[in-house]
Amino acid sequence: MRYDLAIIGGGPGGYTAAEEAGKHGLSVVLFEADQLGGTCLNRGCIPTKALLHVSELYRSIKESESLGLRVSEAAYDFEAIHERKNQVVQILRKGIASAMKAAKVTVVNTRASVTGVNEDFITVNADETSYEASYLIVAAGSVPSIPPISGSKLPGVYTSNDLLEGSGLKLGSLIIIGGGVIGCECASIYRNLGAEVTILEMMDHILPPMDREIAQRLNMYFKKQGISVSTGAQVTEISGEPGAMKVAYKDKTGKECTCSGDGVLLAAGRKPALGGIFPDVLLPASERGALIADEAGKTSVNRIYVIGDARAGTPQLAHVAEAQGRNAVASILGNPLPVNLSVIPSCIYTSPEIASVGMTEDEAKAAGIPVKAKKSLTGANGKAVISQSESGYVKVITHAETDVILGAQLVCPRATDMISELTVAVSEGLTAKSIFRSIHPHPTFSEMIWEASAP
Ligand code: NAI
């Protein structure tokens, strides 16, 4: 069978590229060994946000007395919460299947491997059938990486897949190894539902790539919510059995410590899922096994593109995979790249939410840029006071001479929605004045952006 484009992987990168290519009249075959939607939909972004939504609602109801509500007993049904999450996933999965149908994409529900590459086409094998395509996009995603810690493969040690897929795992106490995005979001879910949660992070603050001020804030909220955080922790061993696990570690002073819990979550990063895709074809990869490509996603092998988590130097984010998918298809069609990949917003769905785009104040200073940083606080925002939000802020970083917005960091309700306005500003080189000149409706959280953009 001959197609214009073959895509391996049906996550946000793969299905976006397939839809885009199909809409432009290319014949497309998409290989997906598991369910359409990839990590994001089946065991990542969507299940976590569904669980965060419900768990936050539960916590808010329990804390609603100060708002004048009288709720005699708040309780939850763990299985029903996961059932609801599974329904959300199914609805969205159906949506992707319909979009594939509408774009006339052939979906092959099996594992594929690349068996041949020549001047004009690439051969992909799936279930003993050969497919030929003029172009190939590899969108194979990533899997949790297991750190080399003794006991990390014991029963009772889980990855985010185990917590998020199917009916989840009910745990009264959880030790999380890794205080990155997955660790912090899972800590929030389990703590909101009343579990004892301990985070062990090896770096000197949680969310290591984030602005230190943001990490300090989140640490403070976690402490208030009863989540224990140990930074600078060197985990040495995991032992025990499900329901009675132990983690031994050295704390930041070098003292030997142990903590115990019903289960252990490994949230120490993710690695490209490229195993078995290229049995005979050699593609240039980085030290961490991700494939090297240019801005359009082209690898050094003619007609082969890579997008998403399996591409070197790429933040492992669904919206980046989608954007790279659109750019790769544009490149195949010979069109200009439609998405600016140099400005990437990042969001963390803790409570309160965290979002960031462009440069932080420290990064701008380190780059020798004359910088102005202006903050507006939730304490002075009507909507934040009404919703009794935690103390937080919007910080806008501008070039002190040109007033061009260089970046922004938000720690406040709806931060993950509001970051888009600032992403447009950074991407398009807008000035703070241009935001301040535009009316922001009252009362809204977005007034904080307006205020932080004031001269
Ligand atoms: P991550 O790279 O964000 O964090 C891993 C953390 O584990 C780091 O803080 C690291 O210092 C720590 N760590 C590594 N080995 C350790 C050890 N042996 N002991 C203690 N700490 C250790 O990776 P994470 O959280 O697993 O997430 C994977 C990817 O998925 C990330 O790229 C993330 O951006 C993405 N993601 C994004 C979400 C979002 O956009 N809201 C949600 C969830 C995941």
- The total of beta strands comes to 22
- At the fourth CATH level, what is the homologous superfamily of the largest domain? FAD/NAD(P)-binding domain
Q: Can you tell me the CATH class of the largest domain? A: Alpha Beta
Named at the architecture level, the CATH assignment of the largest domain is: 3-Layer(bba) Sandwich
Structural class: alpha/beta
Rg from Cα: 23 Å
Low-confidence stretches: none
Give a list of the ligands. 1,4-dihydronicotinamide adenine dinucleotide
- Broad shape: globular
CATH topology of the largest domain: FAD/NAD(P)-binding domain
Structural domains: how many = 3
Provide the helix percentage: 25-40%
Biggest β-sheet strands, sense, barrel: 7 strands, mixed
Average pLDDT, rounded to a whole number, is 96
Spatial separation of the terminal alpha carbons: 62 Å
Salient structural properties:
FAD/NAD(P)-binding domain, Enolase-like, domain 1, single chain, alpha/beta, 5-stranded parallel β-sheet, 455 residues, binds 1,4-dihydronicotinamide adenine dinucleotide, 22 strands, 25% strand, 31% helix, globular, 3 domains
Protein model, in words:
- This protein is of the alpha/beta class and 455 residues long.
- The chain folds into 3 domains: 2-143 and 271-333, FAD/NAD(P)-binding domain (3-Layer(bba) Sandwich); 157-268, FAD/NAD(P)-binding domain; 352-452, 2-Layer Sandwich (Enolase-like, domain 1), CATH 3.30.390.30.
- It contains 13 helices and 22 strands.
- The strands form 5 sheets. Strands 1, 2, 3, 4, 5, 6 and 17 form a 7-stranded mixed beta sheet that branches. Strands 8-15-9-10-11 form a 5-stranded parallel beta sheet. The protein has a 5-stranded antiparallel beta sheet with strand order 18-19-22-21-20.
- Helix 7 (212-225) links the parallel strand 10 (196-201) and strand 11.
- Helix 1 (12-23) runs parallel beside helix 4 (78-102), helix 1 (12-23) packs parallel to helix 8 (318-333) and helix 3 runs parallel beside helix 6 (181-192).
- The mean pLDDT is 96.
- It binds 1,4-dihydronicotinamide adenine dinucleotide (NAI).
- 1,4-dihydronicotinamide adenine dinucleotide binds next to helix 6, strand 10 and strand 18.
